[in-house]
């Protein structure tokens, strides 16, 4: 069994974690992102990046990778309740970008692959031990990060191991997505 050390390990590699991994790597932190699926990852989401998110993508150099994919600018947002009430507002900070989640995921991955301090492992089946110091095992490798970020979804194994279990409300949830 070989041992590796990272400053940061993230379990779960959705867009927010890839973005965080890029930010860590750009700040010279040796970072590992472990994702059980393979990229690009698709699931229903709003597929909109708010103006502050667009600004952050630009600051980290991700926007360059995203600009080659189709996206749509939007300058306002509207919420409509089930009873028909509407709340609308224009953005003060600029435009947001409407972009397919798979395209955002692909652009983040492309950017991440250019960074020497960032490693991404897809198809990762992970075991974690959090007794005293975080330990992450994958295949025949053991990792001892300074910081472990569990971002492995609603039913997070990492959250349970860290005894951070929360009561999750039994809400009806569904999602759908389409692109034109």
From TrEMBL:
One of its GO terms (molecular function) is FAD binding. Residues 6-166 form the FAD-binding domain. InterPro entries: FAD-bd (IPR002938), FAD/NAD-bd_sf (IPR036188), Geranylgeranyl_reductase (IPR050407). This is FAD-binding domain-containing protein.
